[in-house]
Design brief:
alpha/beta, five-stranded mixed sheet, globular, APOBEC/CMP_deaminase_Zn-bd, tRNA-specific adenosine-34 deaminase activity, Cytidine_deaminase-like, tRNA-specific adenosine deaminase
Length: 149
């Protein structure tokens, strides 16, 4: 259910010409934040769906600590987002598609399960993996076709 909400966020990004990545943060079975990728629109490095959702959740709970939350995101978090997840103390991350080029919660490495950090997070990958992956595949195929024209 929550991954489908993250996918709806990703579709909002796609409508803006953004890479379709969406995220939601859940606290006690309630969505407290949702966001989508805005890097091209804002032209800022940190405009990833996860980081925007974390900021919104911080505001919602009134704390930088998101200790009882779960982050759902359509694509495996990159190193920057994994670092923010650690810093926010999010205990659980659920993602859709694996990212072979930048995934840092299981694919290239797992920053969220490194005992050298003072916080770790449980990770569940591959939730609605095919559907999340198709969002990205379709987006990049369409982009390549437009460039050819």
């Amino acid at each position: 259910m929550y991954m489908k909400l993250a996918m709806e966020e990703a579709k909002k990004a796609e409508q803006l010409g953004e890479v379709p990545i969406g995220a939601v943060i859940v606290y006690k079975d309630e969505v407290i934040a949702s966001a989508f990728n805005l890097r091209e629109s804002l032209q800022t490095t940190a405009s990833h769906a996860e980081l925007i959702a974390i900021d919104k959740a911080n505001e919602q709970v009134g704390s930088w600590r998101l200790e009882d939350c779960t982050l759902y995101v359509t694509l495996e978090p990159c190193p920057m987002c994994a670092g923010a997840i650690l810093q926010a103390r999010i205990p659980r991350v659920v993602f859709g598609a694996y990212d072979p080029k930048a995934g840092c919660v299981g694919t290239l490495l797992n920053l969220l399960d490194d005992s050298r950090f003072n916080h770790r997070a449980e990770v569940q990958g591959g939730v609605l993996e095919k559907e999340c992956g198709l969002l990205l595949t379709h987006f990049f195929q369409t982009l390549r076709n437009k460039r050819k024209e």
